[in-house]
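In response to a reviewer's request, we include the raw inputs and outputs for one of the modeled complexes. The two entities were modeled together in a single run.
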Amino acid sequence: MARLNSPEDLEKLRQEVLSRNDPKRPCISICAGTGCIACGAAGVVSAFEEDLRRQGLGDKADVKRTGCHGFCEQGPAVVVHPDGVFYARVKPEDVPEIVSRTIKEKKVVERLLYVDPATGQRVVHESEIQFFEKQKRLVLGSNSRIDPGSIEDYLAVGGYSALVKVLRTMSPEKVISDIKESGLRGRSGSGFPAGRKWEACRNAEGETKYVICNCHEGDPGAFVDRMMMEANPHLVLEGMIIGAYSMAAHDGYIFVGGEFPLTVENVGIAIRQAEEHGLLGQNILGSGFDFTVRLSIDGGSYVCGESTALMASMDGRVGEPIRKYDHATERGLRARPTVLNNLQTWANVPLIINQGVERYRSIGTSGSKGTKVFSLTGAVVNTGMVEVPMGATLKEIVFDIGGGVRGGGKFKALQVGGPLGGFVPENQLNLKVDFDELGKAGLSMGPSLVVMDENACIVDTVKYFVTFLSDESCGKCTPCREVFRQILKVLNRISGGRGREGDIELLKELSDVQRDATLCALGQGAPSPIDSALAHFRDEFEAHIGEKRCPAGVCRGLSAAGPR
Amino acid sequence: MDIKGIDKIIEKHGGVAGLLIQVLLEIQGENHWLPKEALERVSERLRVPMSRIQHIATFYKAFSLVPKGRHEVHVCTGTSCHVRGASRILDAVKDHTGIEPGETDVDSKFSVETVNCLGCCALGPLLVVNGKTHGRLSPAEASEVMKKYG
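The model returned the following structure tokens for the whole complex.
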């Protein structure tokens, strides 16, 4: 591929790609994200390729292997464009029928259509499925039309047009003021205004500055970051290039968990393609701006999601957090000014530039703008990756998009924000997806929402989180080592039927010590699930302690009915 | 893994000490564990003391200082799998292999690990053996899966 030396070259290539794409030509888009691969998507892809050849349609239709569409519950998911016919849980043996019916005869295969559990009706198009209908898919919307290994697919959906706009018409200061005005806040949970971070880094002294994309995602039960990166890596790269341009940074890193092989592979390919096209490297699109992006792979440690630990890990050291005397925007990676943003934050940048600040600001609440992507899992009908506008209620996510509790069970709690978050009982499901509202409720805007039904025990889940955090603690602060052990001792006692009066108060006291005397977000956030469990589900703790029974029947040695 | 292979990995990363973790990850990826001789070579070439390499090799979960078994079993214990009963799946695996997570049995047949999330929550609870995912399992089905591997 010839290098693109100007924004005009890029637009020319886009026109070429678009003119090659016949919008009427059938395209079979198969979700081959990590989730669907595990369901056998690779076999479905090769079955389509073989069958099209066998039926002599090899040059009449395209097979596209895409990243995650989001509807993991129905995987492997297949969408046949241009009509957008959606087939659920497709197996290789279903493929010949789809090819002969849908590709050849333009008819649908009824038996493979998604059945709406509420109405019992078969649904033909992806856009009519309630799971998708109720979402606002600004960031995820293109996933089913992009092969993550093809930069041309990204160009075909308008990719890198924000970069062109920036290089042609915007000064670095204007980019920063637009990001500030857009109200974009860090998607990792803390919600710090991205534009302010960028501005501080731009104004910081020093020639060398770094931008980092955090795609570490060590939360148990969260897969949003890696799926988004896996599905549309160029979107993140484009955001990073624009950010780097505004801050005059020339070195970028993507920090990604080593446990996600497909993410590592796809982002590596994307970086290489961007370099070949002159979108990364020296003199990007002839603008005189240089920027390189490298991959940094994590060795597997939850605490490395914390910014100082992350930067230590990137520098080949053990991921132990340090006290933040300075902002990373002044002294971050290798003591240079650094902007660290979550991948979702970077992915929003091209949208803001393309749509304009006003349109972006029109989505969301007064304090939180745009959309937020969550993984919706646990005891829910529709497991998947969902994108909602800020201001949507948790109830809408669980019941309208998620379809409610699996197997007709009764809702108990929604776990929000992972091990450092908390539990939301049914009567608080009207809470909105909003940094400030969730923060006030003691929750954080983490990447995962886990639905818990009556078969899940709150005491057991708290114990699970504390065990996880205690395993993952770096061990630097004494309270993190010792208090976790004591908390676990009490929780084990309670769940083992040996709970004593006063244990709840003891848990609270230990939590307070933990919060006050530790250094980093892991240590200080650890009491959150305990606090929220005690605030909303104290009766479950009391049942374990006083009546020696586990209402959900989960804790071993205790029965749901209690001792006879 | 021979010294040449290790040198090749070190050179690929430009012999930069800051890329120590990346070098170790690649050795781990190719060799499935980190032999002492490999660590000593890395220490020598990158001029990083063995104490720091040991610290890193024992801190990060990706590294193993003992050879792995022939069958690598990963049980997902992420929150979603947990609320769907992952602990019973783990019990079935522990019963079958006789080892705890993080261990390898004496015959080097199985290595068992727990993982935080494999990104296929719709299939939970699940386990992965040698890269193949077995999902939507009951504990009895998990035992059946394990039997297939001996």
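As requested, we also summarize the result in words. The helical segments of chain B are 3-12, 20-31, 36-46, 50-59, 79-83, 86-97, 139-148. Strands of chain B lie at 71-76, 110-115, 127-129, 132-134.
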